[in-house]
């Protein structure tokens, strides 16, 4: 959906005022967002999604839904399939649905993920959960800052990262037979999703300039970028959590 700008492209972070009317005349009655404002709003949606996930997970834990999911594998996998379906529908129809619908689907996914995460309160120690979250926030923040500030064009990372995900799937299959491979899988996963964090952060810039003349598409692109960053954070958290929990075994 988003197009990467080429190397050497220097974005203008200054606010500008311009609105072209139906007669082709530009007026100054509309203020466009700066790149910094657009990026901040995108991260705002991402953090809102994380908050929804946390609150739903906490509610699921205190209400016993997490235990129900752990005891009923059919219900658990049904929930996981529903999550995948929401992301697929949102990805396929992002240009057709409205901004409100895009945001609704994003928060629906975050809520469904929260129900899955309610199980983790029973599977992991609270200390490990808190420590993993702190490490994830630090790691994510560093890579997001790099993606936003670097002058390097990261669009070339797309194919290597995709191949990395394929390699992870292969390692996951191997890990089913050789337990020691799981640590390697976690390390590879952390590297891949850390790189995805920088890559997806830079894509926000591309969306800002690509849809500067279409506020509707710009807002939907912001929501979709928030979903990508949300997934980066969640996957980083899960792999870091596995390493921390194993180190205490």
TrEMBL record:
It holds the Pfam family Bax1-I. Its main location: membrane. One of its GO terms (cellular component) is plasma membrane. CDD domains: BI-1-like_bacterial. Keywords: Membrane, Transmembrane, Transmembrane helix. It is a multi-pass membrane protein. It comes from the Bacteria. The keyword Signal does not apply. InterPro entries: Bax_inhibitor_1-related. The chain crosses the membrane at residues 45-68, 74-94, 106-123, 129-149, 161-194. The keyword rRNA processing does not apply. It is found in: Membrane. PANTHER family: BAX INHIBITOR-RELATED (PTHR23291), PROTEIN LIFEGUARD 4 (PTHR23291:SF50). Belongs to the BI1 family. This is Bax inhibitor-1/YccA family protein. It comes from Candidatus Allofournierella pullicola.
């Amino acid at each position: 959906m988003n197009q990467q700008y080429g190397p050497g492209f220097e974005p203008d972070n200054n606010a500008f005022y311009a609105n072209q009317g139906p007669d082709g005349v530009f007026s100054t009655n509309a203020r466009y967002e700066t790149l910094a404002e657009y990026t901040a709003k995108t991260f705002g949606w991402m953090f809102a999604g994380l908050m929804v996930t946390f609150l739903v997970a906490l509610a699921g834990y205190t209400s016993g839904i997490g235990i129900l999911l752990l005891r009923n594998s059919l219900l658990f996998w049904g929930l996981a399939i529903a999550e995948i379906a929401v992301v697929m529908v949102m990805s396929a129809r992002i240009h057709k649905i409205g901004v409100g619908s895009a945001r609704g689907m994003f928060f629906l996914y975050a809520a469904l993920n929260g129900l899955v995460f309610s199980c983790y309160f029973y599977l992991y120690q609270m200390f490990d959960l808190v420590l993993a979250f702190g490490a994830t926030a630090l790691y994510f923040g560093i890579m997001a800052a790099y993606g936003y500030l670097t002058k390097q064009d990261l669009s070339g990372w797309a194919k290597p990262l995709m191949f990395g995900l394929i390699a992870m799937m292969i390692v996951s299959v191997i890990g089913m037979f050789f337990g020691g491979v799981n640590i390697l899988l976690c390390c590879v996963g952390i590297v891949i999703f850390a790189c995805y964090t920088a890559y997806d952060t830079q894509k926000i810039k591309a969306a800002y300039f690509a849809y500067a003349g279409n506020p509707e598409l710009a807002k939907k692109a912001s929501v979709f970028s928030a979903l990508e960053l949300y997934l980066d954070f969640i996957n980083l958290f899960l792999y870091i959590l596995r390493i921390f929990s194993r180190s205490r075994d």
